[in-house]
Design goal:
Shape: globular
CATH class of the largest domain: Mainly Alpha
Number of domains: 3
Helix content: 25-40%
CATH architecture of the largest domain: Orthogonal Bundle
CATH superfamily of the largest domain: Cytochrome c-like domain
Radius of gyration: 24 Å
Mean pLDDT: 85
Number of helices: 14
Number of strands: 6
Strand content: under 5%
Structural class: mainly alpha
Order of helices and strands: HHHEEEHHEHHEEHHHHHHH
Length: 418
């Protein structure tokens, strides 16, 4: 009897595995699920937005992925290796081109995509590397849509070669089992006033900038619809990848001195968010951007909100530090690596992180050093933090020489002989 039961049990296990395998194979063949019940007609939006305010929102939420430096527009680009487990990620064209971009999209279709995460054309849900904003306020939504439909140069029609994202097998399975779209109909969402700083900070962090997408337990289990349900909400620990292929462990943002920002003053928090420099003087590593377009009131509101979170007192495992070449061997490469530049400017980095245009944009060392020292003094839209206070004149000169050498001769080219 015991043998019979074991055989039956084994048979059931085999049948279960075959069933699961068949279901997984069918899901792969069918592709991600569609949500045909979603209709742009349910997202008709009458509010008229402000284009200038909308551009600021685009700089805060869209530019990091969709900006293409070759066309100086939001024509899209290949994304960083941090999403390689999910497939080949490519940010689509957001210009008003009628073939490759969103030139023929209606206002309601844009609203549907931004609020629900369901593509109005093919009715699939956006992949995890493209967050949607179910909690974005009506005023911010109107401003952002107005900008995307405006005559601004960043959204002027650009018919760049079309590159589609490709989901991995694992992602297709997750699309069926885990990914959830946002609301199927439009609803009113108010933007909290600055007189309610904690509520405003929660809105900015969770619904607009969606900081929990990286600063929680994993980038693969983020809940865009109900942010507070995300695993390890703001406790940190998510492993992401910089452009050099190095693992970066996202820190927590709870008021914990061990695994968060509990020991940070407001000024230190502000500097990290706006300038990209930590309290100990280190540069914030990619994929964390800087947010120079945030107002003082918005930064203080976010700081107030993070102080209300439940602290995570379990220390996080830190990623290994970068290898830094000895200064005596190559002073310029030493500074490049010491300041964390490889986290963004890998040899094959594309988009706004590529160094290929340096000789053209900065024809001499003086102009390049001026930019590295304070990028936003040269370009108000720059993302990079200011390095002027982190290196001496001699070190900055060596860094500028190495950057040029790196572009012209490769990252391991030896320094010039004296």
């Amino acid at each position: 009897m015991k043998r019979i039961l074991l055989r039956v049990g084994g048979l059931l296990v085999v049948l279960a595995l075959l069933t699961i395998g068949a279901a997984a194979g069918l899901a792969w063949v069918l592709g991600p699920p569609t949500y045909d019940e979603y209709s742009a007609g349910d997202f008709e939006f009458e509010a008229q937005g402000d284009v200038v305010a909308g551009r600021r929102l685009a700089e805060l939420t869209c530019v990091r992925c969709h900006y293409d430096p070759t066309t100086d527009s939001l024509a899209g680009r290949r994304l960083t290796p941090e999403y390689k487990a999910l497939g080949q990620a490519h940010a689509p064209n957001l210009t008003r081109d009628e073939v490759r971009g969103i030139g023929l999209w209606t206002q309601a279709e844009l609203v549907m995509l931004l609020r629900s995460g369901v593509h109005p054309k093919d009715k699939t849900r956006l992949p995890p590397w493209m967050p949607f904003h179910p909690g974005i306020s009506d005023v911010d939504l109107a401003n952002l849509v107005a900008y995307l439909r405006s005559d601004d140069s960043w959204v002027a029609p650009q018919r760049t070669p079309e590159k589609r994202s490709e989901l991995s097998f694992r992602s297709v399975l997750q699309a069926w089992a885990q990914w959830e779209p946002g609301p199927a109909k439009l609803s009113v969402v108010e933007r909290p006033p600055e007189s309610e700083p904690v509520a405003l900070g929660a809105y900015l962090a969770n619904d607009l900038l969606q900081c929990h997408g990286c600063h929680s337990a994993s980038v693969e289990t983020v809940d865009w619809v109900f942010p507070h349900k995300t695993d390890g909400f703001y406790q940190g620990g998510a492993k992401v990848t910089d452009l050099a292929g190095n693992t970066v462990v996202a820190p927590g943002l709870t008021p914990s001195p061990k695994a968060g920002i509990g020991g940070w003053t407001y000024e230190e928090f502000r500097r990290a968010l706006i300038e990209g420099v930590t309290p100990v003087g280190k540069i914030v590593r990619w994929p964390m951007p800087t947010y120079p377009r945030l107002t003082e009131g918005e930064v203080s509101a976010m700081y107030a909100y993070f102080q209300t979170l439940s602290p995570n007192n379990t220390p996080l495992k830190r990623a290994p530090p970068y290898r830094v070449s000895p200064k005596i061997v190559d002073p310029g490469r030493h500074e490049f690596e010491r300041l964390g530049c490889p986290s963004c400017h890998a040899p094959d980095a594309l988009g706004p992180l590529s160094l290929d245009k340096v000789p053209e944009k900065y024809p001499d060392d003086a102009s390049l050093i001026e930019y590295i020292s304070d990028p936003r003094f040269v370009d108000p839209d720059a993302w990079m933090g200011a390095y002027g206070k982190l290196a001496s004149e001699e070190e900055m000169a060596a860094l500028a020489e190495y950057v040029r050498r790196r572009v012209e001769r490769g990252p391991y080219a030896p320094p010039p002989k004296e």
